[in-house]
Amino acid sequence: MIGDRIALFLRTTEFSWLDALDILIVAFIIYELLQLIRGTHAVQMALGAMMLVIVYWVSQWADLETVNWLLRTFLPYVVFGIIVVFQAEIRKVLAHLGKTPLLGAFSAQRTEAVIDEVVLAATTLSSQHTGAIVVIEREMGLRTYIETGIGLDALVTYDLLVNVFSPGTPLHDGAAIIQGNRVAAAACFLPLTVNPELSRQLGSRHRAAIGVTEDTDALAVVVSEETGTISLVTGGNIRRELDARSLKQALLDALEVEESEPEPRQSVAAGAERQ
C-alpha cells in the first residue's frame, strides 16, 4: 500500500534538479543544526518541542478539538519561548553559517612559534600553580570580549604571558586573548557557561573558558590555580590533565598547523634556560 502510494507520487510529480538542490539545502541546514546542539541541554528541549508538534498533528488527525484548540492557542507563545531559550544556539548557528573559507584565508597566519610560546607559558604557570586563561581566536571574532579587557597588541611571547598572569599584577585576573600572532588584550571578562551537567570541581576559570568556546569557535587553554592542571577547551568540551607534548599536539590539530622540530619538550627546556 505504502509502496504503491510512493510509486504513484513519483509518477505524477515532475522532479527537477532544482528540487534536488532544495532538498540538499534543507538537509544541510538540519544536519548543521543537529551538530551544533548535539551533547547540549538543547537536545532535550528540542525533543520536547518536537513532541508538541506531533501531538498537534495527532489532534488534527483524530479530531481532538479541545487539545487542538489548546495547542493552537499556546503554540505561538511557545515559538517566542523557544527563541528566548535557544538564543545562544541560534546565535551560534548564524555565526557558523556566516563563516566561509574565504574569511579564514585572510586571517592572520598562525605559526608554530606562537603555539610553542603558549605551551611553554602554560607549563611554567602550571609548575608554579598560577591560574591562567589564554583564549585563541579562530574564524569568529572576539572583539566583544577584547573590549572588556586592557588592550596590549603585543607579540605573543613566553615572557609576556607569564608576566600577565603573575599574582599581584593588575592584569592577572581575567583572560588573555590572542589574535593571529599577537596578544590583543588581557584581563578580559568571559561569559560563564550555564551547562548544568558540568562537574562541581570546575571553578569559575574553567566555566569561563567553556562559556566562551560555547559562544564562539575559539580555543581556551586553562591552568588551574589549585592543582596546576592544564586543560584545553574547544566547542564547550574540556580536555584535562594535559602535558606539554599533548597540549601542543592538540593545538596543532585544532589550528591546522603542521608540526616541525623541535619537540615540545625541547621548548620547555629552552624556557627553563631563560629563567
Plain-language structure description:
With 275 residues, the protein is α+β, with helices and mostly antiparallel strands. The chain has 2 domains: 2-98, no CATH class; 108-274, YojJ-like (1, CATH 3.40.1700.10. It contains 12 helices and 7 strands. The protein has helices at residues 2-12, 17-37, 42-61, 65-85, 87-98, 101-105, 112-127, 143-146, 158-164, 204-215, 244-255, 264-274; strands spanning 132-136, 150-155, 175-179, 182-188, 219-223, 230-234, 237-239. The protein has a 7-stranded mixed beta sheet with strand order 2-4-3-1-5-6-7, with helices on both faces. Helix 7 (112-127) packs across helix 9. The longest helix has 21 residues, at 17-37. The termini are far apart.
Total domain count:
2
Tell me the structural class: alpha+beta
Provide the CATH architecture of the largest domain.
3-Layer(aba) Sandwich
Query: What is the C-alpha radius of gyration, as a whole number of Å?
Result: 24 Å
The tally of beta strands, per DSSP, is 7
For this structure, the CATH topology of the largest domain is YojJ-like (1
Describe the structure concisely.
The protein has 275 residues and is α+β, with helices and mostly antiparallel strands.
Question: What's the SSE blueprint?
Answer:
Blueprint: H1 2-12, H2 17-37, H3 42-61, H4 65-85, H5 87-98, H6 101-105, H7 112-127, E1 132-136, H8 143-146, E2 150-155, H9 158-164, E3 175-179, E4 182-188, H10 204-215, E5 219-223, E6 230-234, E7 237-239, H11 244-255, H12 264-274
Parallel strand pairs: 1-3
Antiparallel strand pairs: 1-5, 2-4, 3-4, 5-6, 6-7
Helix pairs in contact: 3-4, 7-9, 7-11, 7-12
